[in-house]
Design goal:
The protein is α+β, with helices and mostly antiparallel strands. The protein folds into two domains: 3-253, Beta Polymerase, domain 2 (2-Layer Sandwich); 255-317, Methane Monooxygenase Hydroxylase, Chain G, domain 1, CATH 1.20.58. Helices cover 55% and strands 14% of the residues. The chain has seven helices and seven strands. Strands 2-1-3-7-6-5-4 form a seven-stranded mixed sheet, with helices on both faces. β6 (95-102) and β7 (106-112) form a beta hairpin. The chain is rod-shaped and about 125 Å long. The protein starts with a strand and ends with a helix.
């Protein structure tokens, strides 16, 4: 299903319908907004053919999954963005792909969610709002994509602080599993944001003659870049902090294991000579003079006790316990 909004300057308003009301070429101040979110693959191809979109750009636009991309040709600009599609970082369902193909009069819009329950707040088209240039709509979508990450990242800061406190006092394998899930999510977010940050960074180069740069002022381009650069930095910072929690927990666990092993080693060191003495006097030889001592049993126990006590005092003197 294709949803089409056509702005008629003569009527100073929007007309809503399907593809049948489209008449090309557009004239004057006419503006066109087409939603291809629920359109079939064939319907999308039909629309792209009507606007004579280059096959390479059309192929990228039609893909269900594609890394963020910014490409222009023959007056049209393709902008592929990835927004965060979820309420929080507990269960990452995937990203929402936003595909925008636009010129100065036309915007082809498509949003793809990982599943029906995915949560992604992107601005809806409102026919009651005053008409604005196409680039202003594109700017709103760029800001909405960055906001989909920012709100969650800011909220995660307090959660990460609480998690650090709990790991210091009550660290366990369950919390470790939760941290590893978070690290997996932030690794995926890092890739998405790195793509988008570098994409806008390329637009800031003085050599760039991209059509996208001609539609936006340099301050707007820098604002796009800084938004995603800040998000990327926050994602890397949280990923590193989660890694520090993992390393800290592993170090603490290793230290506790070493302390237990030290105790077991000391206990074994004490009982090894005692076991040797018991083994010697447990041999069944007839010629063992000590077996005939009237107080041999008590002497042996006393010797074993002195030996064990001496070894424990030696461990204490060396500060092993």
């Amino acid at each position: 299903m294709i949803l089409l909004h056509l702005y008629q300057p003569e009527l100073a308003g929007w007309q809503t319908g399907d593809l049948s009301m489209l008449k090309l070429p557009l004239h004057g101040d006419q503006k066109l907004w087409i939603d291809l979110t629920h359109a079939s693959y064939h319907e999308q191809q039909q629309v792209l053919t009507l606007f004579k979109i280059h096959p390479v750009i059309a192929d990228d636009y039609l893909r269900e999954r594609h890394p963020p991309k910014l490409e222009s040709f023959d007056g049209y600009t393709l902008l592929l963005l990835r927004a965060f599609a979820g309420k929080d970082f507990h269960n990452y369902q995937g990203h929402a792909q936003l595909s925008l193909l636009f010129s100065r009069q036309v915007l082809l819009y498509k949003r793809q969610l990982p599943d029906e329950e995915a949560h992604c707040m992107l601005p809806d088209f409102d026919v009651h709002k005053p008409v604005s240039p196409i680039k202003e709509w594109v700017k709103q979508y760029i800001h909405a994509v960055s906001a989909s990450y920012l709100e969650k990242l800011i909220g995660f800061e307090d959660e990460l602080g609480d998690l650090e406190d709990r790991m210091l006092t009550q660290g366990d394998d369950h919390k470790m599993s939760q941290i590893m899930r978070y690290r997996s999510v932030f690794r995926k977010l890092d890739r998405n944001l790195a793509y988008q940050k570098e994409m806008f960074a390329d637009m800031l180069t003085t050599e760039s003659d991209h059509a996208f740069t001609s539609q936006f002022q340099s301050v707007e381009l820098r604002d796009f870049y800084e938004k995603f650069e800040r998000l990327h930095s926050m994602t890397q910072m949280y990923y590193d902090q989660l890694g520090d929690l993992v390393s800290g927990y592993m170090s603490t666990s290793s230290h506790q294991i070493n302390e237990r092993m030290k105790l077991l080693t000391m206990v074994s060191s004490v009982f090894i000579p005692l076991t040797f003495i018991v083994g010697v006097y447990g041999m069944n030889f007839d010629n063992m003079p000590e077996l005939h001592w009237s107080d041999g049993y008590f002497y042996t126990l006393a010797g074993m006790a002195i030996l064990a006590l001496g070894m424990m005092l030696g461990f204490k003197w060396k500060r092993w316990w």
